[in-house]
Predict the 3D structure of the following.
Amino acid sequence: MTADYRLMWTNLGLDLNAHDALLAVLGKAYQEIYLSQKNRPDAMGYFDFVMSEVHGLRIKELLDEKAAGRKIIGSYCVFVPEEIVLAANATLVGLCSGADFATENVEKLLPRNTCALIKSSFGFKVGKVCPYLESADMIVGENTCDGKKKAYETLGHLVKNLYVMDLPQVKSEQGKALLRAEYGRFKAAVEKLTSATVTPESLKKAILTVNAKRAAIHRLSSLRKADPTPISGLDALLANQVFFYDNPARFTESVNKLCDELEKRVKDKTGVFPEKTPRILVSGCPQAVPNWKLPLIVETSGAVIVGEESCVGERGTRNLTDESGETIEEMMEDIVDRYFQVDCAIFTPNPDRLNHIEEMVKAFKADGVIHYGLQFCQPYLMESIPVEKALEEKGIPCLRIETDYSMEDVGQLKTRVEAFIEQLR
Amino acid sequence: MWDSSRPGLRPSSNNCANSKESKVGKQFTGIDIGSRTIKLVVVDEKGEIVLSLQTDTSFDPIFEAKKLLNGVHCDGIIATGYGRNLFEIAFDAPTVTEIKAHAIGARALFPDARTVLDIGGQDSKAIALFEDGRVRKFEMNDRCAAGTGKFLEIMARTLGFTIEDFGREALLAETDLNISSMCTVFAESEVTSLIAKGENRREIARGLHASVIRRAAGMIQRVANGGDIVFTGGVAKNTCMQKMLSEKLGRNVLVAADPQQVGALGAALLVAKKMNIIR
């Protein structure tokens, strides 16, 4: 930790003592969970570096961008279109929501039975420990689940620059019209913020940049189909998490470099775990940094995670935006088309998600599915029951778990996960 | 003697103190380190129980486990229960989850069993089995003590019953008072207020049993809809629980002579299976 960063954090208004405590916990967890893994690909070194500088160098880069006239936009959801942000001379970053922080203070603002992800996003604000949030010129809230949309009403009093985006809940023409209108309104708001105009050239370039980032993740996912799998689920999840923080071009390059190494591993049949290790698909709620609780339990209990049907994972990255549009109108429509396919559980009905889970089970040769639900996350918990039923009808074992960010249920979770893995052997 | 060539059975001089060559053939040990008690079962080459021991878990389960193992002859050991990972580290022994252990143990005692309900000190589990005995599906309680042995123990104490008498006394009640809280803390306040109202403590006791049964029945119905239920774990010793479970689901409830030892038995049998001694 250099003196520069401390000054930078002070200037951002962070609570240095609380922030030191957070970084100490995070550093220790990273050491124990990530660096202690065996047979890691060398190219994960890049992601280790990113994580070690996640509140340092990366923040400095963002502040340098701001000094050079760019704007920073923070988001909590994969529905916020990065293409529009980039095309309007701004940078999009995911905001912290993967760890409990300042819970007592958060519970003065939100009911106790609010999901851990929402509570966490508030915790990082009221605890003054998220440099991304404090660097952001605009924070985008989005009307997804009831918990989030009502929480943004309160968040609006805590931050000066909250922009709320409405989202459809039905995949109908009317729903799509709403998304189209909202993306148009968002484009205008970002242009106003940056005083830049989105041009066909800038939008095209942005589409290509974001697609390249997604394509790199597709390449990574597809390498996980091999047995033995060349990368742990923990490491692949990390790459999917860093997707939300890193400079897009550098991220793409680093993931591709990792994939080059993994390709060699697949050719040599080198894996992180032995061949025939039970393969698990995780499906459900997003796992934001540093929420590594479930993959840690799974991968220290004799199984490997081969895919994440999740916003931090395939749900967020699987679709590309059509690159053939030439005019702004065409490209905006392509963007609407692309995001309208996201099969978030806020949609009703949401059959695409179930189909996608089944497709992933097949493609990744998963032996079973763990449905990961955050306590009090109604949309995903509601869907978990029909998902389990449908999978069981196809003979695919499914374990539904409901948890949060605390460590108090790790013992019971471990028993359940181990028993599930025994079932798969 | 230890046979290190077998998969999943690592040799360790610490595992079985005073282990000596037995004249009666090989013996296999299962140890179930639960939240309240540690159970140990030794089986012979036919899978018959030759030794069955139990002690309180206390604050030092490894010390208690060592005492229990002292003088026990064994050719292989597997640990189960919530303390299995502690045991794994201390004794370098393999482990199995309670779920699989209870499934194997229940199946050995009741060969046609397809549904197992295990209610222990801090966990409850409903387990459905395939026809061949493998685990098909299971449900487990959440993180709190609701619906477990610990819940009943605290409630018995609040009502001034011993845990041994609790079920019998509850059965003497003519009706059960409805207890709505499943949370141990809230239920205790509810019980306290019922006592203050002068309600019959046997009826309160019966109501508490009914609330645990409602929860257990829900878990069972989520995993398997018909057939006999093998009831295991310490709570299975409670006669009121046995009777109410059977009545609630309209299914036969089968209970072993010592239902608390079923997990340890399953672990012991798994040792023998892994060493290809029994099928």
User: Anything to note?
Assistant: DSSP finds nine helices and nine strands in chain B. The two ends of chain B are 21 Å apart (CA to CA). Chain B touches chain A at residues 82, 85, 96-100, 123, 134-138, 140, 142-143 (CB under 8 Å).
